[in-house]
Amino acid sequence: MEAIVLGLVTPVAIVINKVSPGIAVAVGLGLAVVCVLVAGMLKRPFAYIAGSVVQVLAIATGFLVPIMFFLGVVFAALWITAILVARRVEGVT
């Protein structure tokens, strides 16, 4: 879901916030692709660090589209919750 939201940052940034199309595409679609790639690599420990960096960058997209400050924090909270729940579940088994 986060990849979809980040991908949709691109047209919003261009049309509503008058951001340069090159910057909007690089940031929006670039982060969307990175989200999908990192999700596919979550069996490796470094992917959790990369995912955390993506969360920070998603919040930073708020400088292009202000609502992303809020949505980025929501996705970061979901990310942290997923990590904590996974650790708890893995500790039980």
From TrEMBL:
InterPro entries: DUF4233. Pfam families: DUF4233. The keyword Transmembrane applies. The chain crosses the membrane at residues 20-39. The keyword Transmembrane helix applies. Keywords: Membrane, Transmembrane, Transmembrane helix. This is DUF4233 domain-containing protein.
